[in-house]
Design brief:
The complex is a heterodimer. Chain A contains 15 helices and 14 strands. By secondary structure, chain A is α/β, with parallel strands linked by helices. A seven-stranded mixed β-sheet of chain A has the order 7-6-8-9-10-13-14, with helices on both faces. Chain B has one domain. By secondary structure, chain B is mainly α. Chain B has a two-stranded antiparallel sheet. The longest helix of chain B has 30 residues. In chain B, strand 1 and strand 2 form a beta hairpin. In chain B, helix 2 packs across helix 9. The chains are: A alpha/beta, B mainly alpha. The interface between A and B is large, with 38 and 39 residues.
Chain lengths: 399, 286
């Protein structure tokens, strides 16, 4: 360091700066296009998140094999939201500020999405989610959010019609403390009242408890003839076990994500016998659904895998349409490829070809038509109802 | 009748909570730091018992013994190799280190077993109804097991030479050392027993529900509340604290909606720390 003087330092600095610019230009041609994935790999959503992640990666892999988008490979940056709003916000900040992703795909729990959404819209990053609470799309997200999951109103209305069709009039709602808890109960009540029934009690409980005996006692005081359990898997298991122990043999309905087969396997079959579940259904008769199954090498995929498939396809197609990978471009162009009178396409590869040929397209997804309202809700969806018999889910009906 | 049922539910929940709470308070009494790694050891115990029960077909009591031994050994090792080197840097560093340790261990379990929930191979029995009060046979058994374990621990502390040495170190480490008690050995023993109890508590709470890698994390706040309310460092205090938290959370349902149940434990902490900073039974270990 002895020979260093002001001139040498300046020359060195100038040379370093010049060298620094060269590889950047050379690299820019092949710089991958980063996409942020923020699914729950742990916590209450840990059962769905990893499968959603796989479904998205399969689409991106297929697109990369076909040459990528805008001449760039797609690279996913995966973070675990832990089904925890605080952890999710930290992860989202990292994806946005460090990885500079234009889009985040995958938040699952409504409380997580409500926490992550402001971080996204403030930084003009696009967000796609499966969270169902009505409040999510009512946030001032300036268009930087869409969801493929029906909102609480669509869900509760369909569930209410299903419950009413069973002849139940006095429904007790026992649900976890979550943004969807109150709206679901209110929509359910409205629907049931129109059919001559009502929600006769509503108990909101805290997550992470080892017993809900007292909550059940509270709900039973109103003498219900049906139980609507509105929680996640860990707490629904506790509820079902406590209901069995207490010898309460009323009809029970749960969200399908609360009692997937893996959860049913943890319980003696008599505990879950007769439990009915409902879920927004993947469009099982569609070409997009069959192509998603083939891509994942399975016979059938569930609603979450289907929605994740659609996010990946929508992302790729919107970027191709906009010829730009930014949150603003996604916001302004997503509806140009997801709806309208363009040629119907059922997967990202066909869509990319059509866009390259200068055609207008309308992506029809594995989860449904993927048509979005101004606030980012889907305009309609099918529901699949199942019933547990001897510890296994059996198909009841598609509505 | 409703109040009686709530008190009964609270006692059942509180007794199970008492087992890991004793572990937390015992470590504090001897090693003078709050070992949050207790959460992951509850998980480890629950999974060790699960393997003993479902893979090796052991009945519940031997499976509980497996939960105790495996969690105890891992507790001793994690203290020896991870937390002990941190103790020289003080209470706060060690407590923070224990949080990092618990997250690491929890993820080891997740790596090995995945995220999905699992259940013990155990028939689920309907509640007994006695004079209008419902009692779950499983919870009643858990209550008995917890009482037996606590009684054995008290007998160990008061009647054996090693137990007395542990109490001596907890009361006055300097004096104990002058008397020739090997405080390192006592520290190892406390880590083994305390984390063994955590493992046992993890399995007891899993017996009633299901287990997954977060089984300990879900309970640790209530365990911590129980230990603080009873008097951090006091073993009988942990039992009293656990019962107060258990019954308090249930009785709160008379005036609050269940959504605020956990707040009761922390309001109890605030009240106790304000009016009786050393907890209900103070800080004497025994």
């Amino acid at each position: 360091m002895k020979g260093l003087n002001r001139r040498k330092v300046l020359k060195l600095a100038a040379a370093t700066a010049a060298v620094g610019t060269m590889p950047v230009r050379a690299y820019a041609q092949a710089e991958p296009l980063r996409v942020g994935i923020l699914t729950p790999l742990t916590g209450a959503g840990g059962n769905d998140g990893p499968r959603m992640l796989k479904a998205m990666q399969a689409v991106f892999e297929e697109v990369n094999k076909a040459g990528g988008v805008l001449g760039r490979r797609i690279e996913t940056v995966v973070e675990d939201d832990q089904t925890n709003p605080e952890a999710a916000v930290r992860a989202a900040r990292k994806l946005i500020e460090v990885n500079k992703v234009p889009v985040i795909l995958g938040t699952w729990a409504s409380a997580v999405t409500a926490a992550v959404a402001p971080v996204c819209w403030e930084s003009k990053t696009f967000l796609m989610t499966v969270s169902g609470a009505d409040t999510i799309t009512l946030l001032p997200h300036q268009g930087f959010l869409i969801r493929t999951q029906p909102n609480s109103k669509l869900q509760a209305t369909s569930h209410g019609e299903f419950v009413a069709s069973l002849g139940s009039k006095r429904v007790a709602v026992i649900g976890i403390q979550a943004p969807f808890a109150l709206p679901t109960k209110e929509h359910l009540d409205t629907l049931l009242k129109a059919k001559g029934g009502a929600v006769v009690s509503h108990v909101i409980y805290e997550k992470d408890k080892t017993t809900y005996r007292s909550e059940i006692d509270q709900a039973m005081r109103s003498n219900p003839d049906f139980l609507y359990l509105n929680g996640y898997a860990p707490d629904t298991v506790v509820l079902l076990r406590d209901l069995y122990r207490a010898n309460i043999n009323l009809g029970k309905f749960c969200q399908s994500y609360a009692v997937p087969q893996a959860t049913l396997d943890t319980m003696p079959p008599e505990v879950s016998e007769g439990v009915m579940t409902g879920q927004p259904s993947a469009d099982v008769e569609s070409t997009a659904y069959r192509s998603a199954c083939a891509r994942l090498g399975v016979k059938e995929i569930d609603g979450y895998e289907a929605q994740a498939t659609d996010w990946a396809s929508l992302t790729v197609l919107t970027i191709a349409k906009a010829k730009e990978a930014s949150g603003v471009a996604l916001k302004e162009n997503v509806r140009k490829i997801s709806q309208g009178s363009g040629e119907k396409v059922y997967n990202a590869i066909d869509g990319l070809k059509a866009i390259a040929a200068g055609k207008e397209i309308n992506y029809e997804g594995a989860s449904g038509p993927c048509d979005f309202t101004d606030i980012g809700d889907i305009s309609g969806c099918r529901f699949r109802y199942m019933k547990v018999a001897k510890g296994k889910l059996e198909f009841l009906k598609l509505v | 009748m409703e109040v009686l049922q709530l008190i009964l539910n609270g006692l059942m929940a509180g007794t199970v909570l008492a087992v890991p709470a004793i572990g937390l308070t015992a470590i504090f009494a001897v090693l003078r730091f709050t070992n949050f790694a207790l959460a992951s050891h509850m998980t480890i115990g629950a999974f060790a018992g699960f393997i003993a029960n479902t893979t090796f077909g052991l009945p519940i009591v031997p499976a509980l013994a497996a939960a105790f031994v495996v969690a105890g050994i891992i507790g001793w090792m994690s203290d020896e190799f991870v937390l002990r080197p941190l103790r020289a840097s003080g209470f706060v560093t060690t407590a923070i280190g224990s949080i990092a340790l618990t997250i690491a261990l929890e993820n080891f379990v997740r790596f090995g077993f995945g995220n999905q929930m699992r259940g013990y191979d155990l028939p689920l029995r309907r509640d007994w109804v006695i004079s209008g009060l419902r009692v779950s046979p499983q919870q009643f058994e858990n209550l008995l097991i917890a009482i037996v374990v606590v009684a054995m621990l008290f007998a160990f502390l008061s009647m054996t030479r090693t137990g007395k040495a542990m109490r001596a170190v907890a009361d006055n480490p300097m004096l104990a050392s002058i008397k020739g008690i090997n405080s390192d050995m006592v520290a190892r023993l406390v880590s083994f027993i305390a984390m063994g109890l955590a493992g046992l508590g993890g399995m007891l709470s899993g017996l009633d529900t299901t287990i997954d890698p977060l089984v300990g994390f879900r309970t640790i706040l209530s365990v911590f509340a129980a230990a603080v309310v009873g008097g951090l460092g006091s073993i009988p205090g942990a039992v009293v604290g656990a019962l107060v938290i258990g019954v308090g959370e249930e009785l709160s349902l008379l005036v609050l909606t269940p959504a605020y149940r956990t707040a009761v434990g922390f309001i109890a902490i605030l009240l106790v720390l304000t009016f009786r900073p050393r907890g209900i039974l103070g800080q004497r270990a025994y």
